[in-house]
Prior knowledge:
Layout (H helix, E strand, L loop, with lengths): L1 H8 L13 H29 L25 H15 L5 H27 L7 H23 L32 H26 L5 H21 L1 H7 L7 H22 L8 H18 L6 H4 L1 H20 L9 H7 L4 H21 L5
Helix pairs in contact: 2-3, 2-9, 3-4, 3-9, 3-10, 4-5, 4-9, 4-10, 5-6, 6-10, 6-12, 7-9, 7-10, 7-14
Amino acid sequence: MLYWLGYEVLFRYYTPLRVFQYSTFRTAMASLTALLLSLVLGPWLIRRLREFQIQQHIRAEGPQSHLKKAGTPTMGGLLICAAILLSTLLWANLSTAAVWVALASVVLYGAIGLWDDYTKVARKRNLGLTVRQKFGLEILAALLIGAMLLGMNTYGAYSTEINFPFFKNFKPDPVIHSLLQSPWSWPLAFLPFFIIVALVLAGSSEGVNLADGLDGLAIGLMLIVGIAMTALAFLSGNAELSRYLEISRTPGASELTIFCGALTGASLGFLWYNAHPAEIFMGDVGSLALGGAMGTVALLLKQELLLPLIGGVFVIEYLSVIIQVASFKFRGKRVFKMAPIHHHFEHLGWHESKVIIRFWIAGLVLALFALTTLKLR
């Protein structure tokens, strides 16, 4: 909105407003706007959540040190979503389809998380939607996002090809074009593409959700991912840099930097209140929205296969749960003292703050390594 007002309307009357055409300026402003919104609205939201007794219910089988967190306000992800949405709408060029797809991911996955959180609060237990209900809704949201991406593909704003790290000329297309000659074969032609989209979005949303078990852990990792995604979007949207690094130049990627900047600012602002000891928890409305946004940006930038490195700690958290469940089901034994893996280290005697900081360090190292692979082709 401010892009249109400043550059499209007022620039002709006041030439310094040409600064609104630069995505770097608007990315910085979107980050600051999201940060300020989070800092200013945070205390008000915390008070309102306390008034309505929207509080966290702690798992009885979890670490005993967590029992004192019972009663802490939850659904703080509403603040994150609001900051991302408002900042992006203010500073992005809203004629860019990629921006609307990214915003849609926040709304869709945030709505699923809100439903799950509301169910937990209503039941006054740490049990919301069933696994089948939650996973089904996440897949449905992924299909909607996939349909939007295919819509962008019809007019050249999106490519269905997949970029492989370390290989600059290997870009397979999951869409089976030979089946597109007959409308009856279209479901089969697009099936592999939708499977990939569903795996990326369901995996990323659940990865962030599972990491949201310690004060500031998930939001701190999202801050690191947000910075890395902002850098990726900037590189993909810059003609010279994308040519030099031999990465796909995504239409609208420069506008995605504004969205990623807003995500980074919102994460930093929420961390102010979520740092140990947390004054508020993000809940599923925050973790699913952030995970969905992370996966959607990776799809838009054609970095689906780089995402497991950028969000490496989230992948480890997810895998720890899968390994634990599979091992107990087939062997009758647990691999970890408790899953997700951050609780395993707590049971080993690590203080919560030590687990958080060390996981942040691991996340930073993985994100930096992911960015270095852009030149290793």
